[in-house]
Amino acid sequence: MAVEGGMKCVKFLLFIFNFLFWICGIALIVIGILVQMTLHKTLLITNASASGAPIVIIAVGVVIFFIAFFGCCGAWKESYCMITTFAVLLTLIFLVEIAAAIAGYIFKDKVKDVFSRELEDSMKTYNQSADFKKAVDTIQTDFHCCGSHNYTDWFIYGPNMTVPDSCCKTPTLNCGKNVTSSNINQPGCVVTFDTWIQKNLLIVVGVALGIAFFQLLGIVFACVLMKAIRSGYEVM
């Protein structure tokens, strides 16, 4: 049996919302990849608590991508079984997102600690490993910072009171030998990175709240349509 009248409107609304879910799934995948790339581009992170959040975001995005496609088919075909499955899976994803948000809040300070520790370890082997050298140079160039806490950290690891060329405001060959305030980025990378996280956290929270709102609407519309199909309304 098919639906009619107001339920037919709900059917098309559910179809539209599923298309938006599909877009949200893509958005989550992109956000997760960008966060993961930023973390691994800046440092070779091995701590699971630091890299776990973007992996969860990517996984949720992929699942939402397929669930949305599943929901679109269920709404279009008016399949009670498919719509019920869609509503259950979407509810589970919503709960997972809440758990991920809580975990992200709990571990937000741990990311900073892990970053600081990994950066200092990378600085110690800066001249011994090309991978660590590239990672440190990338973060100091991208975030316009130098050292862990400040540029003087390099005096412990670098020769003759110098800093890497990536610390320079305008990186050029051997510019790190001229350690002056006009030539060197003095702020440490830990504080700079933490500021970057706090700044972008608001964007992530805003996107997450928007996605959660659409998910709740999708669950409501799915439940309404499920009831209508089960009641046996006819389509015009």
Automatic annotation (TrEMBL):
Asked if Transport is a keyword of the record, the answer is yes
- Which Pfam families does the record cross-reference, listed alphabetically? Tetraspanin (PF00335)
Disulphide linkage map: C145-C175
Transmembrane segment boundaries: 12-35, 55-76, 83-107, 201-226
Q: Which Gene3D superfamilies match?
A: Tetraspanin
Q: Which Gene Ontology cellular component annotation is one that this UniProt entry carries?
A: extracellular region
Q: Which UniProt keywords apply?
A: Cell membrane, Disulfide bond, Endosome, Glycoprotein, Lipoprotein, Lysosome, Membrane, Palmitate, Protein transport, Secreted, Transmembrane, Transmembrane helix, Transport
Work out whether the entry's keyword set contains Lyase. Answer: no
The record's Gene Ontology biological-process terms are: cell differentiation; protein transport; regulation of vascular endothelial growth factor signaling pathway
Q: Which domain of life is it from?
A: Eukaryota
Q: Subcellular location, in the record's words? A: Cell membrane; Cell surface; Endosome, Multivesicular body; Late endosome membrane
Q: Which InterPro entries match?
A: Tetraspanin/Peripherin, Tetraspanin_animals, Tetraspanin_CS, Tetraspanin_EC2_sf
The membrane topology noted for this protein in its Swiss-Prot or TrEMBL record is: Multi-pass membrane protein
Signal peptide location:
none
Function as written in the Swiss-Prot or TrEMBL entry = Functions as a cell surface receptor for TIMP1 and plays a role in the activation of cellular signaling cascades. Plays a role in the activation of ITGB1 and integrin signaling, leading to the activation of AKT, FAK/PTK2 and MAP kinases. Promotes cell survival, reorganization of the actin cytoskeleton, cell adhesion, spreading and migration, via its role in the activation of AKT and FAK/PTK2. Plays a role in VEGFA signaling via its role in regulating the internalization of KDR/VEGFR2.
Please give the family membership noted in the entry: Belongs to the tetraspanin (TM4SF) family.
How the protein assembles, per its UniProt entry?
Interacts with TIMP1 and ITGB1 and recruits TIMP1 to ITGB1. Interacts with CD9. Identified in a complex with CD9 and ITGB3. Interacts with PMEL. Interacts with KDR/VEGFR2; identified in a complex with ITGB1 and KDR/VEGFR2 and is required to recruit KDR to ITGB1 complexes. Interacts with SYT7.
Q: What is the protein name given in its UniProt record? A: Tetraspanin
What species is this protein from?
A: Acipenser oxyrinchus oxyrinchus
Query: Which gene holds the coding sequence for this protein?
Result: CD63
